[in-house]
Amino acid sequence: MKLLALSTSGRAASAALIEDGRALALAVRDDVLTHSETILPLVDSLFAEDAPFPFEALDAIASDVGPGSFTGVRIGVCVANAFAFAAGKPVVAVSALEALARAAAETGTVCALIDARHGNVYAAIHSGAKALLPPAAPTLAELLPLVPEDALFTGDGALAYRETILAALPQARFADHKLALLTADMLARPAYEALLAGRGETEIRPLYLRPSQAERMYREKL
Fold first, then answer.
1. CA–CA gap between residue 121 and residue 169 (Å, rounded)
2. For residue 137, with 0-12 CB atoms within 10 Å meaning exposed, 13-18 middle and 19 or more buried, which class applies?
3. What class, spelled out in words, does domain 97-180 have in CATH?
4. CA nearest 68: which of 215, 212, 208?
5. Are 166 and 172 in contact (CB under 8 A)?
6. Which of 47, 114, 153, 217 suits a disulfide with 158, CB 3.0-4.6 Å?
7. CB of 112 within 8 A of CB of 136?
8. CATH 3.30.420.40 occupies which residues in the chain?
9. In sequence order, what are the residues at sequence separation of 6 or more whose Cβ sits closer than 8 angstroms to the Cβ of residue 73?
10. In sequence order, what are the beta bridge partners of 191?
């Protein structure tokens, strides 16, 4: 099965071409431009003359749906839905946390953390495809008692709060820092498995977990 995967929920915007759970091509932009400016040119670059397959050969579109940057998540989801509609193909939602966890390790316990600022994180705990803790938005103080002592931590939240994690879990391990940046190739296995399991949809929705800053400010004024 051939997929176009998108990721815009984090710092970098990226797109990848995937076949049968393996990433064949990856394009990434991590600079001052916004994801709305970069994601379409990234996709165009993948389908250049030396592309492993053409757009018309796609079986599905996949996108990470967050959690992460509210604006970034919306961009990726909207673009993925638009491509799927235009191609008449299903679209697959992949949690950014599952993608990070499974890129770090397919065995053992992996805790994926995305920094949500001010001691807050987006978190999930995985053992391969099995979610031991589904995506959540706890404080570190709430999360760490739930994590096995020898868990492998990954994601930018693991980098940001490494010392706090080690103070609570001295035996904790950390994935290579290069894996902290979510990129579209990390969606390869979970997106492929979701499609095989019949979880392709006509439209996907963002996974926010927390209200946006604008929503919080509005509620505070009520």
1. 17
2. middle
3. alpha beta
4. 208
5. yes
6. 153
7. no
8. 2-95+182-221, 97-180
9. 8, 9, 64, 65, 66, 67, 206, 207, 208
10. none
Give residue for tokens 């600022």. 117
Tokens 């970034």 locate to: 72
The pLDDT of 197-217, averaged and rounded, is 80
Across-strand partners of 103? none
Please state, as a whole number, how many other Cβ atoms lie within 10 Å of the Cβ of residue 89.
Answer: 18
Query: Which two three-digit tokens encode residue 162?
Result: 């490494």
Contact 191, 96 (CB under 8 A): no
pLDDT digits (tens, 9 = 90+) for 121-170: 999 999 988 999 999 999 999 999 999 999 999 999 999 999 999 999 99
**CATH code for the domain defined by 2-95+182-221:** 3.30.420.40
